[in-house]
Amino acid sequence: MTLGILAALHDEVDGLIAAMRHEDARATCRTIGMRDYYQGTLHGQPVVLVLARVGKVAAAATAVTLIREFGVDEIVFTGLAGGVAPGVEVGDIVVADRTVQHDMDASPLFPRYEVPLLGQTEFPADPALTAALRQAVAGFLREDLASEVPAGVLARFGAPRLHVGMIASGDQFVSSSAAVAALRRDLPALQAVEMEGAALAQICHEYGVPYALMRTVSDRADDTAHVDFPAFLREVASHYSSAVLRRFLAARR
């Protein structure tokens, strides 16, 4: 079983690539469609790592390449998101149980949020893969957090909690209370918003490939919480991704 691992930003994947190169001297890199795909072993498991870049088109194109060119059996996406639901705060981790494209609107020909010709609005995450990812997050928060992130950093950004639920994707940065209010009204189960996951989910649905999605909350999408984004990405989110995926992969041995 080969796992595809995607992220949207360099800091989210660079540490994983470095770990692979350290562990596996035979790891290779192929450049396809302006993306570098790193294939090898990470924490004892065969994986393909890639920087997908930002947006739904980027995520979909990368997912197709992982499936068709590398034959991955499962895909995990890790990255950042904006918190939407009450109680989903900066620093928290959200694991998706399903995804939706919040900017998909082909009405009146099709219901809002429904992907035309698929007859589907939500794309469920794979239950087994998601359960394993949840366990990895819970173990990280319980046992690894203090050693992975300095106390001063946690004091600045807050101690994280785990949430499970809907994540929505769209090619827009949601940053107003009005936009969040509309999303909460239409999608009451929504936990967080980002720009890639639901596109990945659609591709996985069409190809029959299981997927799971983990996001670290870097801001409140209603703009009520402000954070130093580069510092958060560098000092917090990148460590979360690496540590959680280390646990996730170790459990698969």
TrEMBL record:
GO terms, biological process: L-methionine salvage from methylthioadenosine; L-methionine salvage from S-adenosylmethionine; nucleoside catabolic process
Keywords assigned = Amino-acid biosynthesis, Hydrolase, Methionine biosynthesis
Q: Which GO terms describe its molecular function?
A: adenosylhomocysteine nucleosidase activity; methylthioadenosine nucleosidase activity
What does the record give as EC number? 3.2.2.9
Which Gene3D superfamilies does the record associate with it? Nucleoside phosphorylase domain (3.40.50.1580)
Q: Which residues form the Nucleoside phosphorylase domain?
A: 3-249
In what pathway does it function?
Amino-acid biosynthesis; L-methionine biosynthesis via salvage pathway; S-methyl-5-thio-alpha-D-ribose 1-phosphate from S-methyl-5'-thioadenosine (hydrolase route): step 1/2
- Which spans are transmembrane here? none
| One Pfam entry name | PNP_UDP_1
Spell out the GO cellular component terms annotated for this protein, sorted alphabetically and separated by semicolons: cytosol
Q: Which InterPro entries does the record associate with it? A: MTA_SAH_Nsdase (IPR010049), Nucleoside_phosphorylase_d (IPR000845), Nucleoside_phosphorylase_sf (IPR035994)
CDD domains in alphabetical order? MTAN (cd09008)
| NCBIfam families in the cross-refs | MTA_SAH-Nsdase (TIGR01704), PRK05584.1 (NF004079)
Instruction: From the Swiss-Prot or TrEMBL record, give the protein name.
Output: adenosylhomocysteine nucleosidase
